[in-house]
Amino acid sequence: MSVQRSRFRKILSALPLFLVAFILAFFLWLPTRYIVPVVMYHSIGSGQASGLNSVSTVSFARQMDFLKERGYDVLSMDEYVQVASSGKKPAHKSVVITFDDGYRDNYTEAYPVLRSRGFPATIFLPTEHLGREGRLTWDEVREMADNGITMGSHLLHEPYIPDLSREEYVKEIVESRKILEARLGHPAYYLAYPIGGFNDDVKAAVRAAGYKAAFTTNRGYDRSNTDMFELKRIRLKDTDGPWQ
Fold first, then answer.
1. How far is it, in rounded angstroms, from Cα 165 to Cα 234?
2. β strands within the chain, DSSP E
3. Does the predicted model carry a pTM greater than 0.90?
4. With left for phi above 0 and alpha for psi between -120 and 50, is residue 73 left, alpha or beta?
């Protein structure tokens, strides 16, 4: 019995050292696990999209001010993909800003806010919808592309890919990239799956078409964002953030 008590005391005496070692190991490990958040917007200010897909101009400006005032490093898409694909440890307080669907208010409402704060962003465009009511024009797209906004593909008609045949989704993936490159005069390397829908065959088609990365929403299976063709994003709403 006395031997058992002695062993128990030794275990207790060693416990604080174990806890200290565990805490130190945790905080040494934690910086290596930082995952750069990629935030996603749709309509800004005009209410062109409804519900979760619309954020007021005031809320959007407050969210951008939060990033600016707290020293966040807003990465361009090229910067983000370079870090993510290289396996390098990203800087803490890095973030990426993206928009889906090519609403015209991305130019009239979001773009002035981004430009005044010196923030890059990426807009994923359904190329066949540009110029329609409520959507961006190619002149607006080119102006933003010349001033820090990356343009990516949201396919031709922003379809839900799992509903398409292989022939149909390959055409959407390939032709939308060709149109972007012809209109902008430089390569287009990034794509966002409409409504976040994809599968392994779709990912392979995106890779084969020459894209460097593809983005989903919360449907991404790879929570650590190490698969460059199912990068997860975070949808931001009016009510998100500590400024409320």
1. 28
2. 38-41, 43-44, 54-55, 73-74, 94-100, 121-125, 149-153, 190-192, 213-215, 234-235
3. no
4. beta
